[in-house]
Amino acid sequence: NVSAAGNYTATFSNSCGQGSQSNIIQVLSKASAAKPVVLPGGATTFCSGGSVTLIATNICAGCTVVWSNGLTGPFINVSATGSYTARYVNECGEGAVSDAIPVTVLTQPVNPVISASGDTDLCPEQTVNISAANVCGGCNLIWSNGQTGNPLTVSAPGNYSAVFTNACGQSGTSNTIQVLSLPFPSTPVITASGPTELCPGQSVTLAAVNICPGCNVRWSNLQEGSSIVVTSSGNYSATFTNECGTGQTSNTITTTITGPFVPVVQIQNQCKLSAPANGSNYQWYFNNIPIQGANTAFYTVSVAGFYHVSMTNQTGCSGTSLAVLAQPCISSTAEHLSDNRILVYPNPASSDITIEIQHNSDPVEIQMDLYASDGRFVSTVYQGYVGQVGDRVNCKLPPVPSGLYSYRIQSGAGYSCGHLVIIRQ
Predict the structure, then answer these.
(1) Is the peptide bond before 151 cis (omega within 30 degrees of 0)?
(2) pLDDT per residue as tens digits for the range 323-336
(3) Closest to 415 (Cα-Cα) out of 323, 330, 325
(4) Less Cβ around it within 10 Å: N or C end of the chain?
(5) Distance of alpha carbon 215 from alpha carbon 343, whole angstroms
(6) Checking phi first, is residue 295 left (phi over 0); if not, alpha (psi -120 to 50) or beta?
(7) How much is the average pLDDT of 177-183?
(8) Which residues does 361 contact at the CB level (< 8 Å), separation at least 6?
(9) What is the pLDDT of residue 332?
(10) pLDDT at res. 362
(11) What is the rounded CA–CA span in Å between residue 359 and residue 337?
């Protein structure tokens, strides 16, 4: 059994001696396959369509080079991405595997697809992250603002996009994401459309004049909108709100509702009526009927009865006076008779009254008219002749409800006015 290299012969020997030497057999000792050292013949990262040569540099005698992609030979040309190794094979078997050589084949970058991590309408001090979802191997991500890396943290308004770059070139531009900057709400300035002292039934419009973009207006009375219509007394203010919060409170406008305007009618000489001066829209009424052409502050009575006036004062409030009982102006042919010259009794009355004449006179026709407390004509109680002192006329009262009434007795000698209380049983 031979395990060492050498030249081996043999001879036969017996009792007759030793024979001649045999032929020679040479035994050689072969080494095991070594570990290959593989070197690239160029750059191992290249664009699609390129290649690199991988070379085994220490090939042992009698060894065959077997590569990890199944090829054999002292070198191979590689054009695909992968990790490449080699080993030597000889009659003694396979040697150790070489160190791996990584090869990367780059392609032209595709367009990035970018998205935002949240709302892109930013309030002060807010940020949003924008990232690319399809980053290619070996690519750099460059943003439209010059920054690199993934993701991009944004705090400033603008239109953001990105491109990929690698050794093979640059991609097209990605989709665009718009980032807006929302301001914190400003302070409103509110104004009134007219006077803030209002008559009953009047209104004034309050409006915010400097509404910030994207802001809502909220009023102190909980209404919303750029303006409100106010019909009551109060202190009014407003605030602006948006996604960033609520701003400071505006200036305050105070509205007040004045009491009802009731003009006071003055009477001179029982027939000259005057309303408050410096007003407008005067209209005089006789027994609740408008008097045509009576549109000034003054009116002279020509017929006895109840008069009132409607008008508008200097602040724009309209009102109607209480009714007043007025008589025609005294003349040489008509005078007011003193209360003791014509008596009306009983007072209060229920169903009947008596008219008694207390002055010397020729028989004369008289007429007694009855008016309600608001000046409306109710009825003529009596119309007929009387004249001698002590003449009495019994009259039936009209079927009116209990209340305070006014009367006027007109005769050729003058007139007499008074009040009559009627109490129904």
Answers:
(1) yes
(2) 888 877 754 344 45
(3) 330
(4) N
(5) 79
(6) alpha
(7) 90
(8) 387, 388, 413
(9) 39
(10) 66
(11) 10
Token pair 């003694």 is found at 92
Structure tokens at 85: 């190794």
By residue count, the chain amounts to 425
Residue 375's pLDDT is what? 61
Which of 326, 235, 227 shows the shortest CA–CA distance to 274? 326
120: left (phi over 0), alpha (psi -120 to 50) or beta: alpha
pLDDT at 420: 87
Report pTM. Answer: 0.45
Tell the residue number behind the tokens 């042919």, with chain if given: 333
Strands 177-181 and 121-122: parallel
In angstroms, how far is the first alpha carbon of the chain from the final one?
Answer: 164
Residue type, 424: R
Mean pLDDT of 90-118: 90
pLDDT at 86 over 70: yes
Is residue 382 scored above 70 in pLDDT?
A: yes
